[in-house]
Design goal:
This protein is mainly alpha-helical and 265 residues long. The protein contains 11 helices and 2 strands; from the N terminus they run ααββααααααααα. The chain has a two-stranded antiparallel sheet with strand order 1-2. β1 and β2 form a beta hairpin. α5 packs antiparallel against α6 and α6 crosses α7. The two termini are 37 Å apart.
Length: 265
């Protein structure tokens, strides 16, 4: 219901664009499908992607109902071909629609203009014109997206939402901040040079995705090494088998009760 209400607000209160906005959304949708195919695994059964880059670029170029429809349709297409359960497919489409609608509303309410209208401006000029609204747009989009996913996982596993959010997304916040300028440049290249410029800039998306994936792989390898050390220690003395894991669990529970952060735990 929230996603439908937010989309209706965008349709009613945000001015619609012309055919140029629709063409921009179609091109960005193609790049979005490509980005969503580059999924990497997160803890707690979640999956991550760099789809937010072309999604926010779409909203920056066409901050109106066109962007909401484009993002929604793109997610429907990618979910149809995925192997996830139907409930998860519907949830992913709905939460992305909600995140996009709220991001567009935040952008427009702060005076943000369609980047297509600034096509002749240089990158610094365009950034100066839409920098603050765009930053808020990214924050709203990422916050809604990550909290919605964490909330669903927490409800399914009977866990704390913030704990799930920290486990899945806290470590990637810095990468989201570093990747947000790529979304701006992607939109600016389309506005300034057309579809060809956007396609050329889309190639570095592979590098951004690899950065995210490598970070997750390093975290997983570190965890596996620690577990291997524990098993090696316990193998030397069967009498204390499982002791290290129990101590680790008790320490984690006690630290959580004391209000320690996930990094401190």
């Amino acid at each position: 219901m929230g996603a439908v209400a937010a989309a209706i607000c965008v349709y009613r209160f945000v001015p619609a664009g012309d055919a140029g906005f629709i063409r921009a959304a179609l091109w960005m949708s193609g790049l979005s499908v490509f980005a969503l195919m580059l999924v990497y695994q997160l803890p707690a059964g979640a999956g991550g992607s760099i789809g937010f880059i072309p999604f926010t670029a779409t909203a920056l170029l066409s901050p109106n109902w066109v962007a909401v429809v484009a993002v929604t349709v793109t997610n429907i297409v990618t979910e149809v071909v995925s192997t996830r359960e139907t409930v998860k497919k519907v949830f992913n489409v709905v939460q992305m629609s909600l995140a996009t609608s709220l991001a567009v509303l935040a952008y427009v309410s702060l005076g943000g203009k369609p980047l297509l209208e600034l096509g002749g401006a240089s990158a610094p000029e365009a950034l100066g014109a839409v920098g603050v609204p765009f930053a808020v747009m990214v924050i709203v989009f990422v916050a809604v997206n990550t909290l919605a996913v964490s909330g669903a996982i927490a409800a399914n596993d009977d866990r704390n939402v913030l704990q799930v959010w920290r486990q899945n997304h806290l470590g990637s916040l810095a990468y989201d901040v570093l990747a947000s300028p790529v979304a701006f440049l992607l939109a600016w290249c389309y506005a300034r040079f057309g579809a060809f410029g956007a396609v050329v800039l889309a190639l570095p998306l592979l590098g951004v995705r690899q950065l995210y994936k490598t970070n997750r792989q390093l975290e997983r390898v570190n965890q596996e090494l620690l577990e291997l050390m524990v098993k090696a220690i316990e193998a030397r003395d069967p009498y204390t088998s499982g002791h290290s894991r129990r101590v680790s669990r008790y320490a984690e529970v006690i630290a959580g009760i004391l209000g320690k952060s996930s990094r401190e735990i």
